[in-house]
Automatic annotation (TrEMBL):
Source domain of life: Bacteria
Pfam families in alphabetical order: Arm-DNA-bind_3, Phage_int_M, Phage_integrase
Keywords attached to this entry: DNA integration, DNA recombination, DNA-binding
GO molecular function per UniProt: DNA binding
Domain Tyr recombinase: 207-385
Gene3D superfamilies assigned to the protein according to its UniProt record, in alphabetical order: 1.10.150.130, Integrase, DNA-binding domain (3.30.160.390), Intergrase catalytic core (1.10.443.10)
UniProt protein name: Tyr recombinase domain-containing protein
The species this protein was found in: Salinicola socius
CDD domains linked to this entry: INT_P4_C (cd00801)
Length: 398
């Protein structure tokens, strides 16, 4: 039950600390010496699932109504991915040294938070920092957030544009815009000058991963079936076709993530590009492949241990090298399998929402904000992927 002023006043100190809960993380602690202090408990928004606590002041200086207002502010911060304790430390640091908040300093804080979320992807973590060090810090790294003008940012991005580095430009724009978002929500920048710069930049041509068309699929299936290299690699290429997951998500898979009774693979949020848990329905053919793999690597934590050191994971180039040996260099890469599967599912008439969720894509526009349906009912994605697997089976993969 929510707290009332009467409940607070009538509760007397005891030999041990008494905790009165108002619900949703807000509580009042009464110590044996009679002190009454507000606390708010929450789960850190960095993906670690660690719990933390922050003090909101003492009662009655902070009334019940005021404590609820402060708790509501904290919940809003958590929705925006802000750790209230870290935010409070940043505010105190700004008061002590208001000139210390250069772009480089805020970027370091942003990167430290992202490193927690991307802990399974060291290449992504290192790549983001390397891009900032090479393309941003030499020009604006030591300037205050509000001292950098939109024209300076535009010139920085246009420099990459003139060099034809459109993908680097896109990434730098994204990273720096994200750094400003952190600065704005923590009160260390008045606005985000990178929000509207895209209208003044040339849009680079989109480059899709090399992938086979649907009519070329039988050729790929036959090549996989005839592959005489590493048996686990052969099974992995099959699973890419049967699940449409990203190659990195599959390569890092652990046996504990698979529910053989429900035929579902649950990929944890910290390994997903979108930062949210992803459930993958497993058709019969995928289950059969996994059981074959269990005889080879089932006694290791990961599905794809390294051949040289079983405590490590298979190289991220292994799938690509196998496809090159099969004769698909320049025609098809592991990530391109997602394009092939998505095209096949679309041509088969399955709903776009199911396909996008299978690919773990965010839906466009307002749907992406409010729609979180996984479409895991038996007649939805599981049925869709079974139909796809049956098509693959008919073409001779299994």
């Amino acid at each position: 039950m929510p707290l009332t002023a009467r409940k607070i006043e009538s509760t007397k100190p005891a030999d041990k600390v008494i905790t009165l809960s108002d619900g949703s993380g807000l509580e009042l602690r009464i110590t044996p010496n009679g002190k009454r202090g507000w606390r708010f408990r929450y789960v850190r928004p960095d993906g670690s699932r660690r719990r933390n606590m922050i003090s909101l002041g003492v009662y009655p200086t902070i009334t019940l109504a005021r404590a609820r207002e402060l708790a509501l502010d904290i919940r809003r911060q958590l929705v925006d991915g802000i750790d209230p304790a870290e935010h409070r430390k940043a505010e105190k640091e700004q008061e002590r040294n208001p000139h210390a908040h250069t772009f480089r300093v805020i970027a370091q804080e942003w990167h430290a938070g992202k490193a927690q979320q991307w802990k399974e992807s060291s290449r992504r973590t290192q790549g983001s920092w390397a891009a900032l060090e090479r393309h941003v810090f030499p020009f604006v790294g030591d300037k205050g957030m509000d001292e950098i003008t939109p024209m300076e940012w535009l010139e920085l991005l246009r420099r990459l544009e003139r060099e034809g580095k459109h993908e680097q430009k896109r990434k730098v724009h994204f990273f720096c815009r994200d750094v400003y978002r952190l600065a704005v929500v923590t009160g260390r920048a008045a606005n985000n000058p990178l929000n509207d710069l895209a209208v003044a930049l040339v849009r680079g041509k989109s480059k899709h991963m090399a992938h086979l068309d649907a009519d070329e699929l039988p050729e790929l299936i036959q090549a996989i079936d005839a592959y005489t290299g590493n048996e686990l690699v052969k099974h992995g290429l099959k699973l890419l076709l049967l699940t449409a997951v990203r190659p990195g998500e599959l390569r890092l898979a652990k046996w504990e993530e698979f529910d053989f009774n429900k035929a579902v693979w649950t990929i944890p949020a910290d390994r997903m590009k979108m930062g949210r848990q992803h459930r993958v329905p497993l058709p019969r053919q995928a289950m059969a492949t996994l059981r074959q793999m269990q005889r080879i690597s089932g006694h290791y934590p990961h599905l794809f241990p390294s051949r040289n050191d079983a405590t490590k994971i298979m190289s991220n180039m292994t799938f690509s090298m196998a496809l090159k040996r099969m004769g698909f260099e320049g025609r098809h890469v592991p990530h391109g399998t997602r394009h092939t599967v998505a095209t096949g599912l679309k041509e088969a008439g399955f709903p776009g929402e199911w396909i996008e969720m299978q690919l773990s894509h965010k839906l466009p526009g307002i749907q992406g904000v409010y729609t979180h349906a996984e479409h895991m009912a038996a007649e939805q994605r599981p049925k869709m992927m079974q139909a796809w697997a049956d098509l693959v089976f008919d073409q001779g993969l299994i």
